[in-house]
Design a protein that fits this description.
Layout lengths: L1 H9 L60 H5 L3 H17 L4 E5 L2 E5 L3 E7 L4 E5 L21 E5 L7 H15 L1
Antiparallel strand pairs: 1-2, 2-3, 3-4, 4-5
Amino acid sequence: MAARKAMAKKTPRKKTPTKNPPARKSAARKTPAKTPAKGAAAKKAPAKGAAAKKTPGRQYLRREDLGAPADAFFAQQPPERREHLEVLRALVKKAAPGARESMKWGMPYYELKGGFCALYTSTTYAALSIMAPPEKLDDPEGKLEGTGKTMRHLKVRSAADLDEASILRWVKAAVAHHS
């Protein structure tokens, strides 16, 4: 018997696979094996735990003009649009005298407690973006453009589009909305 024990220690037993393994008492529910997707629809499952790689967030370049005074923006505009922009600028300052004017997103941006309007240009017009829901902006003539929930635009293509009373009313409504 001692010889058998000595031999058992020296020669490891080979386990032969069985066709039908014995059922376990706490057997988990078997799920069918998934076949890998083929072609363009194949996606690799993301790694979990320590194997997951940390990828840095997208890096955006900070605009050089962010927070800068807006005077340079007005100076570089073509004369026909600069005239309209200057009128819009004066009306915004008249409607909200304490507003801070600075460059944001490449355009003059006006804010008190929150941003309420901005000026921008296109190749054919100057524009005033009014940041307020359309129900707060009284516009019976339909001069404001846009379909968004929080903003409308006044596009000034000629001096006739500069209705001082309406612009003052809209800017004051935007200021009230953000106060």
